[in-house]
Model the fold of this input.
Amino acid sequence: ALALMVCPSMKAVGSESSVGTSIQNIPIRGVVRPSAKASISSELTARIEHVGFQEGEAFEKGGILIKFDCRRQKAELESAAAKLREMKVSLKSALFLQRRRANSRQDVETAQARADIASAEVEAIKAHLRACVIAAPYAGHVTEVNVHEHETPKPGSALISIASRAQPRIELIVPSRWLAWLRPGASFHYVMDDTGKDHLGIVVRLGATVDTVSQTIKVFGRFKQATGQILPGMSGTARFRIPKE
Done:
């Protein structure tokens, strides 16, 4: 959990850059969060053939994260496709006989329904086959791997967790009284604990609720420029330009 440390007795640092504002030495703690993250699972029951990336490794969008051994599903697709061809032949025959008034309309409708069922079975198996390869939805890093090659995980269990490396966001907690002046677009300096580097941040949005006990509110920001090696979970301290009371 983020902690808010407010030191009213601290004096402003630096000179005033505009009338009625100052940079105040009120340490607002924050943490870096990824712009997107996911814990990926699958409903497929199959053996894992390949794990594309290990914890900490980077990947590009479309990179293969997990690949299953789907030979059984491919065989099922061939069987279902053969059954569909058979049903289409039966339907064609029923239509031929109907044109010669050698069967009833019900015979044609039955043949059509059987062909539709066989077609649906083919599509269902194709959908399972598409799940045989789990591709990365965006570029990022692997944060956790819960499976190994040759294992058959339970359906729905978490396989791999990923986080985007694009546009990390900064999550802060500030005094709710700042709502009188703080708006999206406000800038602040964010000094990383882990690297000691000072980055310029921009407020993107404000939280939806105020904590009634601590009288604080969440603020979400982003880094203004390319930031290099910044990882989710890194903490730091933000300094805002605050209007003088």
Notes: DSSP finds two helices and 14 strands in the chain. The longest strand covers residues 198-211. Confidence is low (pLDDT under 50) at residues 1-20. Helices lie at 71-99, 105-130.
